[in-house]
Structures are given as structure tokens and as C-alpha cells.
Design goal:
Layout: H1 2-23, E1 40-43, E2 57-58, E3 65-70, H2 72-75, E4 84-92, H3 101-106, H4 117-120, E5 129-133, E6 154-159, E7 173-181, E8 212-220
Antiparallel strand pairs: 1-3, 2-7, 3-7, 4-6, 4-8, 5-7
Length: 221
């Protein structure tokens, strides 16, 4: 009985080995490649407002603008598969070292903050910033100053027109303007102050505040 079991095991092993050996003589290759590039290009400078004072406003003169447009690859005449890009502009805490942007965002709402937070992140001035499109466009919706960065953001849409029958206008670039309305320090605001809840911490007086605008693609179609 033991001998029969041994022979059966050897036979099965031989058959399986034979299938593997035979399959090696026949192979197929399916090549898969994809050229990956960003859909957007963003042209902007780093804006330093220098020394500012509570309840000052910097707005409406077109000085502080940035462009959001389609990339060269998206604009290429040979590329007609996708014609639209939806994006949003959000405000995030500014890191002192760009490598810390995730850290600053992760602990932005902690009370109290981690002990090293303000050695890695600027005190935030995001609520005092706004963003509005330079040219009226029903597909581009901005946000005002003294709105909650957690829930309020701008949205935009770019469109590539490839046929005359396309009802949408060609729109490969949006220009946005940012404004700064400087908050006051809690307990030190003028009587005309109407933005309760957005005051700055008076212990941070004299420090440099910061905020980053992030442009993020939400849909390509």
C-alpha cells in the first residue's frame, strides 16, 4: 500500500512539472505604456505684503494675481479625448519649510498645538485672504475674506474647444486676483470691526503670518 501511494505522488509531480515546462515554449507580451503629465499649469509669484497693520486692506488694483491654465500636453491639437478640467483653490496653513506642509495641515485645528508647531508653521492669515476671477465667468466662483478656510474654497473650469459646433467658448486660462484684509488682534479691534471670530491671537503680535493657496484638479473629462 505504501508503494502505491509513493508512485501516485511521483506521477502527479511529473504531470504538473510537465505542464510548467510546456508553457515555457509559448509566451505572449502585452505592452502597456502611458505618458503622464500634469493637466494644469499655474503661473504665480510668491507675494510678500511686508509689514501690514490691523484692519488694512489690499484689494482691487490687480497687483496680486495668478493664472491657472491648461498644460501644453492638454492643449495639444492631437489630444481630443478630454476637453474639460475642473479645479478648486483652497487655503492651507503655510509651513516655514515646504517639506512640512502635511504636518502644518494635519495639526492646524489642534488646541493646544504641538509644542513645535510654530517652529515649523507660520501663524495663519488664511481667513483674511480672498480669491476672485478677474473676468466674470459662471464656471468660476471665488470666495471672500473672513470665510472659513475649512469649508469655503474657489472653483474653476477650463475648456478646450476643438470643433466649431461646440457651444462652450474656448477657455484655457483663468486669471484670479487675491486680496488681503488684515484681521485685528482680539481685544484690540476698532469699533467698526464686524468680523467677530476671525481675530488674531494677541500673543502673536509682531510675528510673520502666512497662508498657501493650493490649486487642485477635481475632475478631467
Amino acid at each position: 500500500m505504501a508503494k502505491k501511494i509513493f508512485i501516485s505522488i511521483v506521477t502527479v509531480a511529473f504531470v504538473v512539472g510537465g505542464v510548467v515546462a510546456l508553457s515555457a515554449y509559448e509566451a505572449y507580451v502585452i505592452n502597456v505604456t502611458a505618458h503622464v503629465e500634469n493637466a494644469l499649469r499655474v503661473h504665480s509669484d510668491a507675494y510678500d505684503f511686508g509689514t501690514v497693520f490691523p484692519q488694512e486692506s489690499f484689494t482691487g488694483d490687480g497687483t496680486y494675481t495668478f493664472e491657472v491654465g491648461t498644460s501644453d500636453s492638454f492643449c495639444a491639437t492631437t489630444q481630443t479625448r478630454v476637453l474639460n478640467i475642473d479645479y478648486k483653490i483652497i487655503r492651507k496653513p503655510k509651513p516655514i519649510n515646504p517639506a512640512d506642509h502635511e504636518y502644518c495641515y494635519l495639526y492646524r485645528n489642534d488646541v493646544p498645538k504641538p509644542t513645535d508647531y510654530y517652529s515649523r508653521c507660520y501663524p495663519t492669515m488664511c481667513a483674511g485672504l480672498s480669491a476672485h476671477p478677474i473676468l466674470p465667468n459662471p464656471n468660476d466662483i471665488g470666495f471672500d475674506s473672513f470665510t472659513d478656510p475649512e469649508t469655503v474654497f474657489a472653483t474653476g473650469k477650463l475648456h478646450k474647444k476643438v470643433t466649431l459646433s461646440d457651444p462652450l467658448p474656448d477657455n484655457k486660462t483663468d486669471v484670479w486676483e487675491l486680496d488681503l484684509h488684515v484681521p485685528c488682534f482680539l481685544g484690540q479691534c476698532a469699533q467698526e470691526w464686524t468680523h467677530q471670530g476671525y481675530e488674531l491671537d494677541p500673543t502673536q503680535e509682531g510675528q510673520t503670518f502666512g497662508c498657501d493657496y493650493w490649486v487642485e484638479v477635481t475632475n478631467i473629462y
